[in-house]
Design goal:
- The structure holds two protein chains of two kinds.
- By secondary structure, chain A is an alpha/beta fold.
- Chain A has 26 helices and 14 strands.
- In chain A, a hairpin with a 2-residue loop joins β8 and β9.
- The relative contact order of chain A is 0.10.
- Chain B is an all-alpha fold.
- A two-stranded antiparallel sheet of chain B has the order 1-2.
- In chain B, β1 and β2 form a beta hairpin.
- In chain B, α8 crosses α9 and α9 packs across α10.
- The longest helix of chain B has 32 residues.
- The chains are: A alpha/beta, B mainly alpha.
- Chains A and B meet through α6, α12 and α14 of A and α4, α8 and α10 of B.
Chain lengths: 611, 291
C-alpha cells in the first residue's frame, strides 16, 4: 500500500499547525497582552491538560483529582533539585514523571473499581488525601505551607555552547519544545489501537468488554498516562517558577484543569491549551485591566456553565462544528473510499474464524446450569449440547429464561450452579472478555453499538480485540497498521452489506442497518461459535428475508445458536431446536418434532399450568 | 494526652461534627438517589445557608429566624437551580451533570464573594445556648449539645417525611425506578423538583447550624463537599441510613485522630474511605451493582 504525500501532509497537519503557532506566538503575543510568563503558564497547563484529555475526553473518565499526581510530580522534581540529589533538570523531571505515573497506578487501582460519579468522588477524595499528607506528615520534605523555593532551571551544554534557560522567552522556548513533544506523543497514542479502545470504552464500556477487550487494564493505562503528563507538568511548574507551591495539590488545581479542558474542548488534545489560554488571559484582563478584582472567576464560572449547557465540546468543538457547517465534506470522497475496498477479495463471502473447533466432541456442553436471582429461579438445571457446525434454535415463551441462559453462556452473568464446557474447556465463570477471546461471541437483542463512531470504526474495535488479544500496550503503532485488521474490517463490511455506509456515523443508520452492524460486531471478533439474541427483532418482512440469508451464510463457517421469536424463520433455519419454558428445557428435536410436540403446543397456546 | 475527660470531649466533638456531616450528606444522597445527579454544588449550598442565616441574624438577632431563613432561602435556591438548569441534564451523561453542578457551585461561591468579600464572618450562638453545660463527667459547650439535638430532630423529621408519608413513598419509589413511577401517572418532574429542594434545604439548614461553630467564608463549602463524598462512599451512595452512619463514623474518625495528632485527622478519614473501597466498594449500606 502506498501513501500519497498529500495524505501524509494531512495526517501531520495538526502537528505542523501547532509548531507554527508555537513559533509565531512570541511575535504576536505582546500585541494582545500575553507576556512570556503568561504563555509559559499556558503551556504548563496545556501539557497537564493533554493527559487529562486522554483520560476524560477520550476514555470518558472524569477525574476531579488530577492535582494529586500533578503535585507528586512537582514535589518529587523540586525535592530532587533543591536537595542537590540530582543535578540534571531533565533527569529530575523524568523521575518526577515516573513517580507521578506510579502514584497514578496506585490511585487508579482503587478509583477505577467504580465508574461515573463514584470515580469523580473517589479521585477528588484521593487528591485531598495527598494534599493533607503533603501538607503535614511530609512537611519536612515538601516545605509544608511554604512550598519548596530555589528550584534550579535547566542548563544545556552542547559542545562548547551553553544554553542557560532562565525566565522569560528562553523558558517559553523550553516549555514550547516540551509541549510540542507531549502533543506529538499524545497524537500517536490516540491514533494507536489503545486509543481506539479508549474511545470505545467511553462510548460503550460494556460492549467493549464483551468484544474481548480487558477494559479495566485499558482504563488503568489511560489513568497512568494522564498521571505521567500531570507529573511532568507539575515538575515543569516548579522549574518554570523556581518555586514549587503547595497549592499545586489543592482541589482548585483539579477544578481549574477540568474547567479549562471543558472550555477549550475535551477530546481534541489541543482543547486544554486553548482553555488555559482563555482562562489565564481572561483572568489577567478581567482582574487587572478591567479592575474586576475577584469577580473574574464569577465571569468564568458563568461562561463554564453556559458552555457545558449549550456547547459541550467547548471552543475547539464549536470551531470544528462551524467549519463543517461552512464546508460540507465533498461527496466524491466518500464514494472513493467505497471504491477503494478490495471487492475482488470479498466475492467469496466467508466470515472469519480464528480458533477452529476441535474435530471430536461437542462444541458446547452445558450441564446442570442454574441461575437464581433472590427468590426467582431464572434457569434451573439446564442441560444443553451443541455439536460442531450445528445451527441450533432456542425458542420459548416470554420469560422462559432465554436471555439469562445466553448471558451465562457468554460469561456476562455467573451461574449459581452448573458447568459450561466450550470446545472441551471449562469456561464457567470466566467472564465475558475471556469467553469472547476463546471464540464464543454474542450479538445483542438490543443494539449495543459505539454510537459516536462510524460503521468502519465500530467494526475496527471488534477486529482489534481479535487481532491483539485482551490487552496490549502498543501505543506507538497506529491502529491502521495492525496486520490484517483493515482487510478483516472490509470483509465483515461486505458480509453484512454495509460497505457503502462504512464511513457514516452509526447514529444516521436505519434500524435494519444498525441491526446488521450489531451482528457484524459479533462476527468481526471471528468467533467459532456465535450466539444471536433475536437477530430479527423489529425488522420489516423484507429485512427478515435478507437477514435469514445472512445467517445461513454465517452458519456455513461456524456453529450458531439463535434465540428468536419468529417461528417461521426458526423452523426454516435451524437444524435442531431447543424449547425453554419457565427456566427449564421443555423439549429438544428437529423442527418437525418440535412442531408436533404436545408439550410445546401447550406451553405456547394454553400454558403448562392448564395442562 | 489520653485521659477520660479528653476522650469524652473528643467523642462528643466527633458526634457533633458527624451529625452535621450526616445531615448534609443525607441531602446529597437523596438528591443522587432520586435524580441520579451528583450535586457538586452541594458544598456551595451549605455555604449559602450560612450566609443567608448570617444576614437574617444581622437583621433580626434571632437564631431561630436565622435558621428558618437559611433553610428557606437555600431551598428556594435549590428549586430555582433544578428548574432552570439541572432539569435539562437528566437525559445527559453523568459527567455533564457533574460538570454543570460544579460550575453552579463556583458561580454561587463567587456571587457570595462579590457580595460579602473573602473575609470570614462570625455569627454568635444564641444567647440561651452560649456557655457550657456540665454533664457530670464532662463540661461541654452548650451550643454543641444543641447542635446534636437540632440535627437529630431534623434527621428524624426527614426520615419521617421520606419513610412514613405518601409523598415520601413516591420519592422512594422514584429512587427505585423513576420511569415506572412516571408510568403510574405521577408527575416525576415535580417529585424531582421537590427532592432537589429538600436536599438543598438540608445543606442550607446545616450551614446555619454550623455558622456559630466555625466562622463562615465563601469557600467554607469546599472541604465539606469532599467530606460528604467520603461519607457517602463509606455509607453507600443513595442510602439514607448509609449517610447517617457514614457521617457519624467520619466525625468520630476525625475527632478521635485529632486527640493524638490533629494533622492526621483528614488523612485517617481518607484512609478509612480507601479501606471501605478496597473491602466493600459499594459502601457499608450500598447495594452491589448500583452506580
Amino acid at each position: 500500500m502506498r501513501l500519497a504525500s498529500s495524505d501524509v501532509r494531512r495526517r501531520i497537519l495538526p502537528e505542523l499547525a501547532l509548531a507554527l503557532v508555537l513559533l509565531l506566538a512570541p511575535l504576536i503575543a505582546p500585541w494582545v497582552g500575553f507576556t512570556a510568563d503568561l504563555l509559559s503558564r499556558i503551556l504548563v497547563w496545556g501539557l497537564f491538560g493533554i493527559g487529562f484529555d486522554i483520560l476524560f475526553g477520550y476514555t470518558g473518565l472524569l477525574s476531579f483529582g488530577q492535582a494529586a499526581v500533578f503535585g507528586v510530580g512537582g514535589f518529587i522534581t523540586a525535592y530532587l533539585l533543591t536537595n542537590g540529589l540530582i543535578d540534571s533538570v531533565l533527569v529530575a523531571l523524568l523521575l518526577g514523571t515516573l513517580a507521578a505515573a506510579a502514584a497514578g497506578v496506585l490511585i487508579g487501582l482503587l478509583a477505577l473499581r467504580r465508574t461515573g460519579i463514584y470515580f469523580a468522588m473517589i479521585t477528588l477524595a484521593f487528591a485531598e488525601m495527598f494534599f493533607f499528607i503533603e501538607n503535614s506528615p511530609l512537611a519536612a520534605f515538601t516545605g509544608g505551607e511554604n512550598g519548596l523555593p530555589g528550584v534550579a532551571s535547566p542548563r544545556f551544554a552542547l559542545g562548547g555552547f551553553v544554553l542557560d534557560i532562565r525566565s522569560g522567552w528562553s523558558m517559553y522556548g523550553f516549555l514550547a519544545v516540551c509541549f510540542f513533544l507531549g502533543y506529538v506523543l499524545a497524537r500517536r497514542i490516540v491514533a494507536s489501537s489503545v486509543g481506539r479502545v479508549l474511545i470505545a470504552i467511553r462510548d460503550n464500556p460494556l460492549r467493549a468488554r464483551a468484544l474481548g477487550h480487558a477494559i479495566g487494564a485499558y482504563k488503568l493505562a489511560a489513568f497512568t498516562i494522564a498521571a505521567a503528563y500531570a507529573g511532568l507538568a507539575g515538575g515543569l511548574l516548579g522549574v518554570m517558577q523556581g518555586y514549587m507551591p503547595p497549592e499545586a495539590f489543592t482541589f482548585d488545581t483539579s477544578g481549574q484543569l477540568v474547567m479549562q479542558t471543558v472550555i477549550g474542548g475535551a477530546g481534541s488534545l489541543i482543547g486544554p491549551l486553548v482553555g488555559a489560554a482563555i482562562w489565564l488571559w481572561l483572568r489577567d484582563v478581567l482582574q487587572n485591566t478591567l479592575g474586576l478584582g475577584p469577580a473574574w472567576k464569577l465571569v468564568l464560572g458563568l461562561v463554564f456553565v453556559l458552555l457545558v449547557t449549550f456547547l459541550r465540546r467547548g471552543v475547539v468543538g464549536g470551531v470544528q462544528l462551524a467549519w463543517h457547517r461552512l464546508r460540507p465534506p465533498p461527496e466524491p470522497v466518500a464514494a472513493a473510499v467505497v471504491d477503494a475496498s478490495p471487492r475482488a477479495e470479498v466475492v467469496e463471502l466467508h466470515a472469519p474464524v480464528r480458533h477452529p473447533l476441535r474435530e471430536n466432541g461437542p462444541a458446547l456442553e452445558v450441564t446442570g446450569l442454574s441461575k437464581r436471582y433472590g427468590g426467582l429461579l431464572a434457569n434451573s438445571d439446564i442441560a444443553f449440547t451443541v455439536e460442531r457446525g450445528e445451527l441450533r434454535g432456542v425458542i420459548g415463551p416470554n420469560g422462559a429464561g432465554k436471555s439469562t441462559f445466553f448471558k451465562m453462556l457468554t460469561g456476562e452473568v455467573a451461574p449459581s450452579a452448573g458447568q459450561i464446557l466450550f470446545n472441551g474447556q471449562d469456561i464457567t465463570g470466566h467472564g465475558v472478555t475471556d469467553v469472547c477471546q476463546r471464540g464464543l461471541s454474542k450479538s445483542y437483542q438490543i443494539n449495543q453499538l459505539f454510537g459516536r463512531l462510524t460503521v468502519r470504526q465500530n467494526l475496527e474495535i471488534a477486529v482489534l480485540a481479535e487481532r491483539r488479544g485482551r490487552f496490549r500496550l502498543d501505543l506507538w503503532r497506529p491502529a491502521a497498521r495492525v496486520p490484517g485488521a483493515a482487510a478483516r474490517v472490509e470483509q465483515v463490511l461486505a458480509l453484512v452489506d454495509l460497505a457503502a455506509r462504512a464511513d457514516l456515523p452509526v447514529s444516521v443508520l436505519a434500524y435494519g442497518e444498525k441491526r446488521r452492524l450489531e451482528i457484524g460486531l459479533a462476527l468481526a471478533t471471528a468467533p467459532s461459535m456465535l450466539l444471536l439474541d433475536e437477530p430479527l427483532a423489529g425488522m420489516s418482512p423484507q429485512e427478515r428475508v435478507e437477514t435469514v440469508k445472512l445467517l445461513r451464510q454465517i452458519g456455513r463457517d461456524r456453529t450458531l445458536v439463535v434465540v428468536e421469536h419468529d417461528m417461521d424463520a426458526m423452523f426454516e433455519l435451524a437444524g435442531r431446536i431447543t424449547v425453554l419454558c419457565e427456566g427449564r428445557v421443555l423439549a429438544e428435536g428437529t423442527p418437525a418434532e418440535i412442531q408436533q410436540s404436545r408439550a410445546v403446543q401447550e406451553a405456547y397456546l394454553g400454558g403448562v399450568h392448564a395442562a | 494526652m489520653l485521659n477520660w475527660s479528653n476522650f469524652a470531649a473528643q467523642l462528643f466533638n466527633g458526634l457533633a461534627t458527624g451529625a452535621l456531616l450526616a445531615l448534609i450528606s443525607v441531602g446529597l444522597t437523596i438528591i443522587y438517589g432520586t435524580l441520579g445527579v451528583l450535586n457538586l454544588a452541594h458544598g456551595a449550598l451549605f455555604m449559602l445557608g450560612g450566609y443567608a442565616g448570617f444576614v437574617a441574624f444581622q437583621a433580626t438577632h434571632s437564631f431561630l429566624l436565622a435558621l428558618l431563613a437559611g433553610a428557606g432561602f437555600v431551598m428556594l435556591a435549590g428549586l430555582l437551580i433544578e428548574w432552570v438548569v439541572v432539569r435539562h441534564f437528566y437525559a445527559r451523561p453523568a459527567e455533564d451533570q457533574i460538570l454543570v453542578t460544579f460550575g453552579i457551585g463556583i458561580v454561587l461561591v463567587e456571587l457570595v464573594r462579590a457580595a460579602f468579600g473573602s473575609l470570614a464572618q462570625t455569627m454568635p450562638p444564641p444567647a440561651w445556648a452560649a456557655g457550657v453545660t456540665s454533664l457530670g463527667f464532662l463540661i461541654y459547650p452548650t451550643y454543641r449539645l444543641l447542635v446534636m439535638g437540632i440535627v437529630a430532630a431534623s434527621l428524624l423529621a426527614l426520615y419521617l417525611v421520606l419513610y412514613r408519608t405518601r409523598i415520601g413513598m413516591v420519592v422512594r419509589a422514584g429512587i427505585e425506578d423513576a420511569g415506572m413511577v412516571s408510568i403510574l401517572g405521577i408527575d416525576v418532574q415535580r417529585v424531582f423538583l421537590l427532592v432537589f429542594g429538600i436536599g438543598a434545604m438540608a445543606a442550607g439548614f446545616a450551614g446555619v447550624v454550623n455558622a456559630p461553630i466555625v466562622s463562615i467564608m465563601p469557600d467554607v463549602g469546599d472541604n465539606i463537599l469532599v467530606e460528604c463524598f467520603v461519607v457517602v462512599v463509606i455509607g453507600g451512595v443513595g442510602s439514607f441510613p448509609g449517610a447517617v452512619a457514614g457521617g457519624l463514623i467520619a466525625g468520630e474518625i476525625m475527632s478521635l485522630t485529632a486527640m493524638f495528632d490533629p494533622s492526621y485527622s483528614a488523612v485517617m478519614l481518607f484512609a478509612a474511605m480507601t479501606l471501605v473501597l478496597a473491602l466493600r466498594p459499594q459502601g457499608l449500606f450500598g447495594v452491589a451493582g448500583r452506580e
